[in-house]
Amino acid sequence: MFFLSAVITFPLLGGLALLFFPRERVTALRWTALTLALVELVLVIVLILTYLQHTISIFSSSYLSESWSWLPSLGINYSLSVDGISLVLVALTALLTTVCIAASFRIERKIKNYMAFMLLLESGMLGVFLASNLFLFYIFWEVMLIPAYFLLGTWGGERRIYAALKFVIYTSVGSFLMLVGIIALGYYHQLAAGVNCGYTLELSQLLNTASSCRGVLGSDIQTWLLLAFAAAFAVKVPLIPFHSWLPDAYSEAPAPVTALLAGAMSKTGIYGFLRLCIPLFPQAVQTLAPLFNTLAVVGILYCAVLALTQTDLKRLLGYSSISHLGVIMLGLFSFNAQGMGGAVLQMVNHGITTAALFLLAGFLEYRTNTRRLSDYGGLAARIPWLAVAMGIAALSSLGLPGLNGFTGEFLSLLGVFRSNVTLGVLGTLVVVPAAWYMLRFFIGIMWGSPRQDGVVTASIRKGSLRDISWKEFWVVAPLLLFIFYIGIQPAFIAGVINPSLINTMQVLGNAFAR
Amino acid sequence: MTNLSLWVLVLPLLGFIILGLMGRFMPRTAILTIGWGACGLAFLLAAVNFINMLSTSAAQRSNDSVIYHWISAGTFSLDFGALLDPLSMTMLLVVTGVGLLIHIYSAGYMADDPGLWRFFAYLNFFIFAMVLLVIADTFLFLLVGWGLVGLASYLLIGFWYQRRSAVAAAQKAFVINIIGDLGLMLAIFLIFAQSGHLDYGSVLAHTFSGGTATAICLLLFVACAAKSAQLPLYMWLPDAMEGPTPVSALIHAATMVTAGVYLVARTSPLFEQSSVALAVVAGIGGVTALYAASIALVQLDIKRVLAYSTISQLGYMFMAEGVHNYAGGIFHLVTHAFFKALLFLGAGAIIHALGGEQDMRKMGGLWGRLRITGVTFLIGALAISGIIPLAGFWSKDEILGSVLAQATASGNVWYYVLWIIGIVTAGLTAFYMFRLFFGIFAGSYRGETATAAEHNAEVNEAKDENTLVTAAGHQHTVHIRYSAIHEVPRVMSTPLIILAVLSVVGGFIGSLALFGLPGWSPLTSFLPSGLHAHAADLPLGLAWISTGLSLLAGVLGIGLAWRFYGKGFGYKTQMQGNPLYQLVFHKYYVDEALNAVLVTPILALGRGLTRYLEGDVLDGGSRGISMVFHGSSAVIRRVQTGYMRNYALGILFGVVVIVVYYAMRG
Amino acid sequence: MPLTAYLIVSAVIFTIGVIGVLIRRNPLIIFMSIELMLNAVNLSFVALSHFLDSVDGQMFVFLVLTVAAAEVVVGLALIVSIFRTRHNIDVDEMNVLRG
Amino acid sequence: MTFEIVSFVVLAVATVATAIGVIAFKNAIHSALSLILTLLFLALFYLQLQAMFIAVVQILIYAGAIMVLFLFVVTMLASDQDELALRNQIPWQRMVGGLLGLILVAALSYLLFTGAQVTGTTASHAESLKQAITTYQGDTQAFGMALFHGFLFPFEVTSLLIVVAILGALVFGRRTN
């Protein structure tokens, strides 16, 4: 079956095809790119339907996995597989790419390259979520970096070069360490499994689930390997103190790119922790869990306090994004069904909410050409529907009960509280500053008395400050829909995630609490 | 029954959705039809349900029905369900009933506001959220309702969103309410971690270990204190008066703020497991009652007087619950909903008639112009002052009685103190209510003769208050001539009259045991027995003492108010020099202290971290590392001389090394 | 004569070529030195071919010859065009790649 | 035997001397002439090693074609610039290069004297050279058979390389306006 390959390569091939378009046919380029993303979305929906009809088990179903020998002597295979966890993230990626491409119609410069890079980025992320060979995982991991770099460095704001360089350096330092870790992991696994077993980078064999070659790594080796892997993932998530690239990157990138980076790409880091670190190094993860938990908690509170005082819209959202990702990390390292299930659910929620917020902030920035919070004020009367959309997204982000953000955070924190009361309390504390800075964000733009002068007032006079257009509405509408849907009825997604989660976490043994 | 209760929930939600999406384009009548219709039908359904419930036997009155499966993860599984039992039914009737009256009233009050559709949409949303809070059958959906009423409150306080003070008040209310949500969330986590369940049935039947029970109850009470504006989380409620007056009546007096009282009553089996938590509830309730009443004594803004009064009365309710008499708390909740809604709506009528004026110093003598409002306001004031036989008397008497009963039963001196606080507060309540009443209605009209000096003083004192002109154009203060003051339209006065009637007769649903009718206690017998079974009994003689004293305190308070303000309100400028007066007038400087201790340092910390840790250390650090590489490459690049022959020499050097290595190895 | 003798001659010529590359600044002479090195290698190929009794060594020499011819053609063309632009053929002057 | 030794020594000395001449003459023309001599002596070596065809080719191509090209360029550039007159920017290069060269030749000689022995016989797939020479009545024919059987592909690739080189030389040599 080539289905998974088709899902991954379709955007890539589509993006390449786009490059053969004449440069002047801007409209055709945009619509073709959107159509490609939509077709990809349809493919993903087909994948979901296929998956749902199948008995849920990892790495066994023939439709939902494929494997081709590539460099067998090095344990490198082209092998893909999908389970509930990757399925929801694949769906998230496809959705967000579609939305972000639709939101990119305003990009004027080099639209052809832009769209091609967006599609390439999608391919990279899908590959990361679907790869079940470590080497392949690494390749897709690096594939993500290239388009992200160009999108940031070419279409970004004033300080785009600085931001892009910082992003690339941070990310690649992390991923080189991961590459070392991958190579060493294969070596130590072979060492532990015995001479008759070949060098393998196949996830199913490394996890000892499908192979007769069982090798259990010593705890020291596990710890070092975990640290190498975690370096790559911690930068991508990001965990503090590896987050320094993020505010620059998120604030300089064009809004749709930021939405895609924050919404989907940050999930690859957490996915790495969940899919690789925890199952591959179960003992080390438990030993080092206090470290990650501490980083997560400090990050949650630290970034929340930072978000309180940011003067730049997108920086504020960037810090809030890190803060919320900390909750996901906490949930992940609680090692119980609620915490981890909540974490995966919250990955989806965070993706949707953050993307919506960044896109809406982008709409606003497009109208006023400023990101400074102090330039805004009292716009709700001028742009009521944009205010409503932004309000919904902000409320979802601050975790208002009944919206999606609450569902995931509640479940994660419930799990955290079960495993460690102190962490649970500290993590839950974040709802207060979260409410505070999101209200500051919303109120600062939409409420209060309008400014007497400044950029925004000028754009009001010019008449360029219009309410949300139909096109923009259709861009964010799916995201808002999901904000409500997951808030009201999360059982469906949780039902997809949980069986796979429990299967994946079997390796944790008794440490994994139901 | 399921279907009916579900519709009570769904109708206001539908109203909200329709108004929210299309209200902007609707004519006034359509907005009113939908807004009133949604709430009215919900009330009707609740009433039908209530009658149905009355016809069943007491054992079958609790009806829990699953609506849909919400989520499951591991051992955690949760359904969304509706619980209809006498307690939630009582709340449901109050919420939808008072809500309906206020919906009707709002049509008049908000008639000129261009955001009418928005207002009704929010009101319907509030009714939905409150109903959800009340009929939820799990702690989680309680939390959902809890958060959503907070949102509704936020939206309505900030209804005039271009007024800076309204925005600040809304933000404050939301953030403090989030602190409450935090408490509730933690309580829920603890409950789940200990019992493995979140539905009321299992949790309330579960026995927690002593410390855990106390922790859970205290966390729950944090939520209650935030929602019901108890010490130390009360600060948002007075500021919430920035919202339109019907909102103050509905949310910040009658219904939402009583959610805390409801929650304690709902989780009474838990509180029964922790005497410490109950003592805290009673203590905080008592202290808050006295504290808020003392602030109310000197307020000049009529809505703020009522706001502090609300806080004080909520304190009474918690006092009752703290001495095991949950039914008494609910009783006071019901009667308070009637007379406080009445008072707020009356105040709204006055403000409406005076074109937005809220300052007592510019009122007076309105008895002659606003007869209906005056009479109903008087009834409300009498009711809250606990004058027999109005509603407030009965419920307050029951509370004071049960505090005294607890005191005698336990012999703990602190309960006597609490009881005395209750009596004193009753006196203070009567005093400030009649100060307010006389200030508004007695004497002569002061609105036309405000001197420049007074005006300045007012500006200085109220510089953070509403002086901004709004887009809605409602709240800007116009001085209206006395002869131009007219009684409010019927759409506003009708709810006043209905509420006045309820304030008169509402007390009779309580116990009349004192007056020789021991069998008559409809509310208590309707509510589950757990809500009053644990309360201590009071001998009839002591009961008479308590009743008499509270009545005496009320009369005394009214008398003093008459003595000072009977001829009209006089603002005594010499009081300004009195430090005690200043302390109370500035609400004990709590807001200022909070700003200085919490808000400013956190913001300063954030700014400092952004600048130094984020900027200099992290950003600077990464730049520093790049400088290291930059610098070292400046050294190393000298190797690249550009002379091709040099490079060739390098190659040769490598070759020689290799060859010599082989030569040495042999 | 033993093989070693031929190889030593080859090594000496090769080293002379190396030194020529290193010490001369005229690119033409550097080129000639390179030719010297190639021929030194050729000598050892032929010698080895003789002593190993195999035609393969000679085959390599033949290929080296053709490659050398091609190299000289391109190299001299380069030198000529450099001389045209710079009027100077000191290799030390061509140091724009200096770090 | 003695003749062989004598001729080898003479040839070796002459070759090395002319090779030194290549790098020692100031004038490039002298160097080129000296190189031609070196190449001729090398051809004699090849003869001595019974590689007739290679010796002829060496003279035809190297001494004939390539060196003509060299001389052509040398005279064309007519470089009368005296290398020594120009300031030597890296004076230490000469000494270090010479020293390293000496070490190299010493180490190589040491290796050759002590370590290098011809251990193998004919490479397994190839025929014996001497047998082939007798079979095909001459060295040239033997060479041709090997070239067009075993080494056809490299041979063709070489021709391609030469074509590319010619094109490259054309491109470089073209006068750009």
UniProtKB/TrEMBL annotation, chain A:
<dbReference type="GO" id="GO:0016020">
    <property type="term" value="C:membrane"/>
</dbReference>
<protein>
    <submittedName>
        <fullName>NADH:ubiquinone oxidoreductase subunit M</fullName>
    </submittedName>
</protein>
<feature type="transmembrane region" description="Helical">
    <location>
        <begin position="167"/>
        <end position="188"/>
    </location>
</feature>
<dbReference type="GO" id="GO:0048039">
    <property type="term" value="F:ubiquinone binding"/>
</dbReference>
<feature type="transmembrane region" description="Helical">
    <location>
        <begin position="224"/>
        <end position="246"/>
    </location>
</feature>
<dbReference type="GO" id="GO:0015990">
    <property type="term" value="P:electron transport coupled proton transport"/>
</dbReference>
<keyword id="KW-0830">Ubiquinone</keyword>
<dbReference type="InterPro" id="IPR010227">
    <property type="entry name" value="NADH_Q_OxRdtase_chainM/4"/>
</dbReference>
<feature type="transmembrane region" description="Helical">
    <location>
        <begin position="34"/>
        <end position="56"/>
    </location>
</feature>
<feature type="transmembrane region" description="Helical">
    <location>
        <begin position="423"/>
        <end position="443"/>
    </location>
</feature>
<feature type="transmembrane region" description="Helical">
    <location>
        <begin position="6"/>
        <end position="22"/>
    </location>
</feature>
<keyword id="KW-1133">Transmembrane helix</keyword>
From TrEMBL, chain B:
<feature type="domain" description="NADH-Ubiquinone oxidoreductase (complex I) chain 5 N-terminal">
    <location>
        <begin position="70"/>
        <end position="120"/>
    </location>
</feature>
<protein>
    <submittedName>
        <fullName>NADH:ubiquinone oxidoreductase subunit L</fullName>
    </submittedName>
</protein>
<keyword id="KW-0472">Membrane</keyword>
<feature type="transmembrane region" description="Helical">
    <location>
        <begin position="541"/>
        <end position="565"/>
    </location>
</feature>
<feature type="transmembrane region" description="Helical">
    <location>
        <begin position="6"/>
        <end position="23"/>
    </location>
</feature>
<dbReference type="InterPro" id="IPR003945">
    <property type="entry name" value="NU5C-like"/>
</dbReference>
<dbReference type="Pfam" id="PF00662">
    <property type="entry name" value="Proton_antipo_N"/>
</dbReference>
<feature type="transmembrane region" description="Helical">
    <location>
        <begin position="142"/>
        <end position="161"/>
    </location>
</feature>
<feature type="transmembrane region" description="Helical">
    <location>
        <begin position="204"/>
        <end position="226"/>
    </location>
</feature>
<dbReference type="GO" id="GO:0008137">
    <property type="term" value="F:NADH dehydrogenase (ubiquinone) activity"/>
</dbReference>
<feature type="transmembrane region" description="Helical">
    <location>
        <begin position="496"/>
        <end position="521"/>
    </location>
</feature>
<dbReference type="GO" id="GO:0042773">
    <property type="term" value="P:ATP synthesis coupled electron transport"/>
</dbReference>
From TrEMBL, chain C:
<feature type="transmembrane region" description="Helical">
    <location>
        <begin position="6"/>
        <end position="23"/>
    </location>
</feature>
<dbReference type="InterPro" id="IPR001133">
    <property type="entry name" value="NADH_UbQ_OxRdtase_chain4L/K"/>
</dbReference>
<dbReference type="GO" id="GO:0048038">
    <property type="term" value="F:quinone binding"/>
</dbReference>
<feature type="transmembrane region" description="Helical">
    <location>
        <begin position="28"/>
        <end position="48"/>
    </location>
</feature>
<keyword id="KW-1133">Transmembrane helix</keyword>
<feature type="transmembrane region" description="Helical">
    <location>
        <begin position="60"/>
        <end position="83"/>
    </location>
</feature>
<keyword id="KW-0812">Transmembrane</keyword>
<keyword id="KW-0520">NAD</keyword>
<keyword id="KW-0830">Ubiquinone</keyword>
<dbReference type="GO" id="GO:0050136">
    <property type="term" value="F:NADH dehydrogenase (quinone) (non-electrogenic) activity"/>
</dbReference>
<comment type="function">
    <text>NDH-1 shuttles electrons from NADH, via FMN and iron-sulfur (Fe-S) centers, to quinones in the respiratory chain. The immediate electron acceptor for the enzyme in this species is believed to be ubiquinone. Couples the redox reaction to proton translocation (for every two electrons transferred, four hydrogen ions are translocated across the cytoplasmic membrane), and thus conserves the redox energy in a proton gradient.</text>
</comment>
<keyword id="KW-1003">Cell membrane</keyword>
From TrEMBL, chain D:
<comment type="similarity">
    <text>Belongs to the complex I subunit 6 family.</text>
</comment>
<feature type="transmembrane region" description="Helical">
    <location>
        <begin position="95"/>
        <end position="113"/>
    </location>
</feature>
<keyword id="KW-1133">Transmembrane helix</keyword>
<dbReference type="GO" id="GO:0048038">
    <property type="term" value="F:quinone binding"/>
</dbReference>
<feature type="transmembrane region" description="Helical">
    <location>
        <begin position="32"/>
        <end position="49"/>
    </location>
</feature>
<feature type="transmembrane region" description="Helical">
    <location>
        <begin position="6"/>
        <end position="25"/>
    </location>
</feature>
<keyword id="KW-0812">Transmembrane</keyword>
<keyword id="KW-0472">Membrane</keyword>
<comment type="function">
    <text>NDH-1 shuttles electrons from NADH, via FMN and iron-sulfur (Fe-S) centers, to quinones in the respiratory chain. Couples the redox reaction to proton translocation (for every two electrons transferred, four hydrogen ions are translocated across the cytoplasmic membrane), and thus conserves the redox energy in a proton gradient.</text>
</comment>
<keyword id="KW-0874">Quinone</keyword>
<dbReference type="GO" id="GO:0008137">
    <property type="term" value="F:NADH dehydrogenase (ubiquinone) activity"/>
</dbReference>
<dbReference type="InterPro" id="IPR001457">
    <property type="entry name" value="NADH_UbQ/plastoQ_OxRdtase_su6"/>
</dbReference>
